[in-house]
């Protein structure tokens, strides 16, 4: 269980100070954060839970969120990010999550565009960004992140085999330490989205952290379904796929290795 007083103290001086909202059980932290956003909750509000009953990932996929087993957290951002930069937010969140996991465990995370966190071939986490746009600015964005921490077993029918930080590190990982590192990294990355020079580095940093976005034969599922070899990211964070009929710019969808 989280030590909320210690957690609050560790966040003094950050955008999250005094804005933590913990629920032992909730349907979805993203739903909680979206409802709070519509009720004018402030920038930096954090909604996290010990268990989710209806956790979800991108495309309304279910996210298994057993009690006490993972980190289930959603962060509300109100930083007037230009709407054109919104596709970079899940990529920046992926970089933040990978950094937090590395700082907490020493493990290296592979980023599978656009929102999956993998260790080797197994999925350890995912990201779901939901937002509202007003007059070409992001009025608010909710960054939801789920990370498997203590799980020891998973269903066999998952699209991507799963793993947890405990399994990969061989030790019991502190969810509280991971949360502190994650929030610090999200704050830093979100500030970068307001800096044109920092924004330009996001596609390059994702490509450096990922084995998926360049030189890998993949199948894209979703409205822009195609098969080809990944050829990097454009300045918007969209994935380039070199197919048999030419270069395709993929703005939405998911990836699988072409032989899966």
Description:
The chain has 260 residues and is α+β, with helices and mostly antiparallel strands. It is built from seven helices and twelve strands. The chain has helices at residues 4-10, 29-38, 88-105, 165-169, 175-192, 196-199, 201-209; strands at residues 20-26, 46-52, 70-77, 110-112, 116-119, 122-134, 137-148, 214-221, 226-233, 239-243, 246-250, 254-257. Strands 1-2-3-7-6-5-4 form a seven-stranded mixed beta sheet, sandwiched between helices. A five-stranded antiparallel beta sheet has the order 11-10-9-8-12. A hairpin with a 2-residue loop joins strand 5 (116-119) and strand 6 (122-134). The protein is globular. The mean pLDDT is 93.
Question: Mind sketching the topology for me?
Answer:
Blueprint (H helix, E strand, L loop, with lengths): L3 H7 L9 E7 L2 H10 L7 E7 L17 E8 L10 H18 L4 E3 L3 E4 L2 E13 L2 E12 L16 H5 L5 H18 L3 H4 L1 H9 L4 E8 L4 E8 L5 E5 L2 E5 L3 E4 L3
Parallel strand pairs: 1-2
Antiparallel strand pairs: 2-3, 3-7, 4-5, 5-6, 6-7, 8-9, 8-12, 9-10, 10-11
């Amino acid at each position: 269980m989280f030590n909320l007083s210690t957690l609050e103290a560790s966040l003094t001086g950050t955008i999250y100070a005094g804005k933590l909202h913990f629920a032992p059980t909730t349907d979805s932290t993203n739903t909680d954060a979206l409802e709070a956003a519509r009720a004018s909750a402030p920038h930096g509000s954090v909604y996290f839970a010990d268990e989710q009953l209806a956790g979800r990932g991108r495309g309304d996929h279910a996210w298994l969120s057993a009690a006490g087993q993972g980190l289930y957290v959603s962060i509300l951002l109100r930083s007037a990010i230009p709407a054109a930069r919104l596709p970079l937010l899940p990529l920046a969140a992926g970089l933040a999550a990978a950094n937090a996991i590395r700082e907490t465990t020493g493990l290296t995370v592979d980023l599978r565009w656009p929102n999956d966190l993998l260790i080797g071939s197994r999925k350890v986490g995912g990201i779901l960004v939901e937002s509202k746009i007003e007059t070409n600015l992001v009025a608010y964005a909710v960054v939801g992140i789920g990370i498997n921490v203590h799980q020891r077993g998973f269903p066999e029918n998952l699209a991507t085999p799963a793993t947890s930080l405990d399994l990969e590190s061989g030790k019991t990982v502190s969810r509280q330490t991971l949360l502190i590192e994650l929030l610090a990294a999200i704050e830093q990355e979100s500030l970068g989205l307001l800096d044109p020079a920092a924004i330009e580095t996001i596609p390059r940093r994702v490509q450096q952290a990922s084995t998926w976005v360049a030189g890998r034969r993949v199948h894209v599922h979703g409205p822009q379904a195609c098969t080809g070899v990944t050829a990097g990211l454009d300045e918007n964070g969209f994935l380039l796929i070199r197919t048999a009929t030419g270069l395709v710019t993929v703005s939405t969808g998911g990836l699988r290795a072409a032989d899966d």
